[in-house]
Amino acid sequence: MESLEQALQRIEPVRQEFGQAAKRRWDSIAKPLGSLGLLEDAVVRIAGIQRRVDCDISRRAVTIFCADNGIVEEGVTQCGSEVTAVVAENFTKGDSCVCIMAELANAEIVPVDIGMNIDVPGMVRAKVRYGTENFLKEPAMSRQEVVKAVEEGIYLAEKLAEKGIQLTATGEMGIGNTTTSSAVAAVLTGRPVEEMTGRGAGLSDAGLKRKIEVIKQALEQHQPDPADVIGVLSAVGGLDIAGLAGMFLGCARRHIPVMVDGFISSVAALCAVRLCPAVQGYLLASHCSEEPAGELLLNELGLTPLIRAGMRLGEGTGAVAAIPLLDMAIEVYRKMSTFEEIEIEAYQPL
Ligand SMILES: Cc1cc2ncn([C@H]3O[C@H](COP(=O)(O)O)[C@@H](O)[C@H]3O)c2cc1C
Ligand SMILES: O=C(O)c1cccnc1
């Protein structure tokens, strides 16, 4: 298993020359220049990542990192931690929002237990520990545990690469993970907690107020250093965010395009990019989360979303929703006649 340090050293920048060749192919196609907008940009990006002009995303998976969060004790969520395992079990049976969407998008579901309170059969076991601590009282976990979770994500990306997966979508499930995500986002962006915090899966006004207070108090207490991503995750993060950060790093390491989902996934992507800026070139933004910080995080990542659908579900639903758009883009890119071909036909005597 590759260590985080080794992976960080081995991640290479994307190869622009393949992206440039893909752009020339788009420009030769018989349609107004650039008229498929972000769909064209996505294919150019994928070509650079895969290092091939005839890029291919026909084999795809959605990895769903599942973990529990000790901070749920503080009343920052609408439902209890037991819901994490219930939904996770449904991932193994194909009965969740993301499963139904992934079936249509022809994406394999890979549910990963990176730190749930309960063991659920049928999941990829990458459990670092049974849930985190309540970060209002003590650090969520140790630095070693953060590194272990990141390394599990990197390892899983390696396994997906070995299986021939050509595109990964990132998902998560873990009650309380919008609280950990808001805390991490506030530290990494240096923005006020209020701007970074929303209602998650559905909090009341009073609940939202409490959630903001809890995060503020915890940050006051831990004073995490924004330059120390592992330290921030250890103080106020979650195992799902750490595992996802590893997935982003691992996909970059293996030249796999990786689709960012919503709020939690964006925070994990930001962690990965702060650990290794070259990772940015391997990311594709699917949609803009309806959580208050959704747009800000995408800006911070330098990404433009393909979809604006007002989604705020998680599980990887937004990332999976964008896959059919990419399929359509690649189909046009491959099959559509070029200006040259059409002109040649036009000169044939009728
Ligand atoms: C039944 C159910 C299914 C979900 N699927 C995704 N989430 C989403 O909501 C959770 C984060 O919100 P919070 O921080 O407010 O707990 C995550 O698990 C996320 O994936 C769900 C939440 C619930 C309740
Ligand atoms: O945007 C998200 O990823 C999100 C928002 C609310 C709850 N769960 C996930």
UniProtKB/TrEMBL annotation:
Protein name in UniProt: Nicotinate-nucleotide--dimethylbenzimidazole phosphoribosyltransferase
Enzyme Commission designation: 2.4.2.21
Annotated pathway: Nucleoside biosynthesis; alpha-ribazole biosynthesis; alpha-ribazole from 5,6-dimethylbenzimidazole: step 1/2
Gene3D superfamilies: 1.10.1610.10, 3.40.50.10210
Biological processes per GO annotation: cobalamin biosynthetic process
Domain of life, per lineage: Bacteria
A Pfam family this chain is assigned to: DBI_PRT
Coiled-coil intervals, chain numbering: none
Alphabetical list of CDD domains matching this protein: DMB-PRT_CobT (cd02439)
SUPFAM superfamilies for the chain: Nicotinate mononucleotide:5,6-dimethylbenzimidazole phosphoribosyltransferase (CobT) (SSF52733)
Gene Ontology MF: a single term: nicotinate-nucleotide-dimethylbenzimidazole phosphoribosyltransferase activity
Transmembrane stretches, start-end: none
The keyword Coiled coil is annotated on this UniProt entry: no
Keywords annotated in UniProt: Cobalamin biosynthesis, Glycosyltransferase, Transferase
Catalytic residues as annotated in Swiss-Prot or TrEMBL: 315 (proton acceptor)
Keyword Kinase: no
Family: Belongs to the CobT family.
Function: Catalyzes the synthesis of alpha-ribazole-5'-phosphate from nicotinate mononucleotide (NAMN) and 5,6-dimethylbenzimidazole (DMB).
